[in-house]
Amino acid sequence: MRPDGRSMRESILAAAVQLFAQYGYHAAPLRDIARIAGIQAASIYHHYPNKQALLVEIMETYMLRLNTSLEHILKEYDDPLQRLHEAIANHIRMHTTYKEEFFIIDTEMRALEEEHRPHILSLRDKYEALLQELLRDGMERGIFRQSDVKIASYAMIAMCTEVATWFRPDGRLSVQQVITIYRQFIAEGLLVLMPDVSRMPDESAHLL
Amino acid sequence: MRPDGRSMRESILAAAVQLFAQYGYHAAPLRDIARIAGIQAASIYHHYPNKQALLVEIMETYMLRLNTSLEHILKEYDDPLQRLHEAIANHIRMHTTYKEEFFIIDTEMRALEEEHRPHILSLRDKYEALLQELLRDGMERGIFRQSDVKIASYAMIAMCTEVATWFRPDGRLSVQQVITIYRQFIAEGLLVLMPDVSRMPDESAHLL
User: Domain HTH tetR-type: where (chains A, B) (predicted)?
Assistant: First the structure.
């Protein structure tokens, strides 16, 4: 069933993802991870030195995957709106496909030991920087309105990440439908209905 | 210093907020909460039956406060845009003021025992319902574009909640500046620069 060490590592990692997501890092004992992976508690140390190593590998693997996919989009497409659309779709697809892994990334940062923190934070910074590059370029080319690039990137990441917390594959909307709604919401906001209102947001309250 | 039981309860609750936010619910021992509150570990039981009761009280208190403030806004204002602006400001102010309390609400739902979960979830549902009422009314009155009310409410909550994770009182932007940026982002999105683009988002990629 598991002829090589690599495959056993994967089983252990999958068990760790399951338990960290369900009970939290601190509440998930290493012996339970071993049990679910189907090995003796003592044998787990042949593959990972400790529970922290599992957390670091989960975070690193999926954050790298997210970054690589966004780098690919920035290389593949030149048009800012197309890049934005692809980035939104990619973020939502990754977070709904690897729901538990990204939930751990989002909730267990404080469980990282000091020595691992800078590396993992640098991966998060990298993703934000890529997204900010996309937004800045779109603003400079006159496609996106001038706004605070950092805050726009945080807002986008927050709303697209949160999809994973409520999305159900058997729910009323497909991933693609959710992506379409988010693209419109991010690109145009709630208000773009009447040109007069969209051009004069501050005065609109008095016009009604 | 603490002449009555109520004030000791507050000290215990403040200590719980501090430790739950710093280490997580499961990793925060009740004896440390007692120590920080300045009482004997055994005496804590005169005020709260167990650690779970502390978690429930933190969640209930601040979720109720959030709901009450949004209900107040819906009563106070009639114009949908004004209501939206006030709701965004209120959400961001509450989450930056009671940063640790809302961080606990957002990350420790799974730590709630079965018997307390329905009540706390109903408070969250209530807040979403109030926000959805605001959005639906704005769409029906032709101020907001027709879109998925539920998803728009989730997206708004996610992005405004996340401000608490990066906002620093001594940072480059004040709370009010952040609120202004978020209002524009939510109402108008990233793209509202050129009327042609905002009216034809799907074709714009080909026009450039």
Answer: 6-66
Say if residue B40 is in the same domain as residue B83.
no
CA–CA separation, B60 vs B119, rounded Å? 9
Closest CA to A1 of A34, A30, A39, A29: A39
Looking at the structure, do residues B80 and B117 belong to the same domain, yes or no?
A: yes
- Clarify whether residues A20 and A96 are in a common domain: no
Q: Which domain holds residue B180?
A: 51-189
Q: Which residues of B touch A111 (CB under 8 A)?
A: 24
Flag whether pLDDT at A6 surpasses 60. Answer: no
Q: Is A196 inside any structural domain?
A: no
Indicate if ipTM > 0.85: no
Query: Which of A182, A185, A198, A207 best tests the B interface by mutation, with the highest count of B CBs <10 A?
Result: A185
Q: Can you read off the two tokens belonging to residue B185?
A: 């982002």
pLDDT at A200: 45
Specify the pTM.
Answer: 0.84
Q: Helices in A77-116 by DSSP H: which ranges?
A: 80-97, 99-107
- Nearest CB neighbour to B147, from listed A144, A185, A195: A185
CB contact under 8 A, B147 and A181: yes
User: For A73-116, how does the pLDDT look when each residue is reduced to its tens digit (9 = 90+)?
Assistant: 999 999 999 999 999 999 999 999 999 999 999 889 989 999 99
User: Which residue in A162, A178, A201 is closest to B184 by CB distance?
Assistant: A201
Average pLDDT, chain A: 89
Question: What mean pLDDT do residues A185-204 have?
Answer: 61
The token pair that represents A30 in the structure block: 């290493």
What ranges make up the beta strands (E) of A19-149? none
